[in-house]
Each structure stands twice: as structure tokens, then as C-alpha cells.
């Protein structure tokens, strides 16, 4: 049988999609369109509420507004194309389009993780060193942390896209996923990457694990600090400021660790599609609810925004 090479920019890929059952496509389209609209509207409201309330002009809400913006961009890279494919018989994407989607998916996804790490550092300073909080978490430093998050994430994405652009894709060009993710695309490659995979995986581990370790170490220090507080009410008040952030971290990293921190030989297309939906669609949709329903300041900010809209 003739083996074809699909590495040129004129060739493309075919998505297997979320389900092989055509009867499920319309219900799935309705569900994911609703989730996408809720995600977009919810995160836009978070951004507007933060920027319209002077009492929310703090480092924590600065990072939260940027996290909401990244969530909008993150879902925009994945969901619209997925919705089009659910209504189309040919679920295709060009080779260049696949690389572009993968670039921005990784860039916005990694920026999300670094922003979550920045928010953990913010909570650490607020609890461990409250009297110097305004000095340590000054606006200039917050902007630098944001720029650093974006720069590292985009450089990591560029590194991966350059690596993948040198691969050849032979025989099958069907991606067993609903978007161009790393593992499904690598499974299609007929290029021997054993010599370079160690370097690539080491770089990926360093970039992806750094914010997670930062969050872990920050919360270890937070727990130590909170346990030293004599009153139970004081301990509860300190922990309550971290509740929303911890919930989002658990949702985001729980699914990311399951999908990416495994050998390629353990890759499971069906399970990974389900878990990937969690952090690409569900978590960005839930973030506005988590931060607004469990946060008095955000509730007040949302109330003020609602009053402004009505007036």
C-alpha cells in the first residue's frame, strides 16, 4: 500500500470529533453552543465588573480579570471550530490551521496556569505578609508577572510548533480528537522522534510543572501560616479567601495532569476526549460562577454592574 506524506502545507487533517454517532451531533452542538455562550458572557461580565468597581482594583482581581480574558481566548481557539465540525460532514482542518490552533491553544492554556500561579502568590503575600502587601504586590510587579506569563507561554508554544512542523505524517491523517492537541497529532507522525523527545518533554515538563509547583509551595506556606493563627475564626477567614482559587486549580490541573503527564503509549483517545472537554470547555465556563458566587466582593461588583446596565 502506498504511504502518503501529509507534512506539506497543502495537506490537511480530518477530526474524528466528539462522537462517531451522527445522531448525537445536533444535541452536542446545542450543548456546546450554550456552554460557549455562557463562558463568553460570564467571563465578559467578570471583566466588566472588576473594571467598573474601584474597590476591585487590587492585584487579585487584576489577575482574575486577565484569567477571564484568557479563558475567552482559550475557548475561542477550540469551540467555534468544533461547532462548525459538528454541523459539517467533512471535519477537516488544514495543516497550517492545525499548527495555528495548537499554538494558540498551548499559549492561552499555559498562560492560564501561570496566572493561577500568580494568584497563588498573591494569596500567599496577603496572608503571610499583609502589612507589606501593597508594596510587594505593587501594580508594576503585577504587570511584569502578567507579561512574564504570556512570554513564557508563547515561547513554549513556538517551540512545540517548530518541532511539529519538521515531522512527517504518513498513511492515516485522521486525528482522534476534536481539535489539534499534541498527543493525537504525535500519534500520526511516522518520523522517529526518540532522540529529540527527551529534550522536548523536558522543556514541556519544566514549563508546565513550574506554575503547578509554585501553587503547591505557595499553599504549603499558606497552610503553615494559617495554622499559626490562634483563633478558629481567623483561620477560617484566611482560608476562605483561597476557596475559589483552589476550586479552579483543582478542576484545571486535575484534568491536565491526567491527559498530559502520561507516556504516549498510555494515550486513550476516548477517555482523553472526555477529560479534555473538562479543562477546555467546562472549567472556563465554571470560573465566573466559582468566583462570583463564593466571593462577596465579586457579588457586590456584579450588583453594581447590573444596576449600571439597568440605569
Could you give the order of the helices and strands?
A: EHHEHHHEHHHHHH
User: What's the story with the biggest beta sheet?
Assistant: 3 strands, mixed
Return Rg in Å. Answer: 21 Å
Count the DSSP helices. 11
Poorly predicted ranges: 1-10
Strand content: under 5%
Count of β-strands: 3
Structural class: mainly alpha
Q: Strand arrangement, largest sheet?
A: 2-1-3
Q: What is the first-to-last residue Cα distance?
A: 70 Å
> Looking at the structure, what is the overall shape?
globular
Mean pLDDT: 83
State the assembly state of the protein chains: single chain
Q: How much helicity do the residues have?
A: over 70%
If you had to describe this structure to a student in words, what would you say it looks like?
The structure is a single chain. By secondary structure, this protein is mostly helical. Helices cover 74% and strands 3% of the residues. It has eleven helices and three strands; from the N terminus they run E-H-H-E-H-H-H-E-H-H-H-H-H-H. The protein has helices spanning 25-52, 59-86, 95-128, 133-136, 139-165, 182-188, 194-227, 232-240, 243-260, 269-293, 296-310, and strands at residues 12-15, 92-94, 174-175. A three-stranded mixed sheet has the order 2-1-3. Helix 2 (59-86) packs antiparallel against helix 3 and helix 3 runs antiparallel to helix 9 (243-260). The longest helix is centred in the middle third of the chain and has 34 residues, at 95-128. The protein is globular and about 65 Å long. Mean pLDDT is 83; it is low at 1-10.
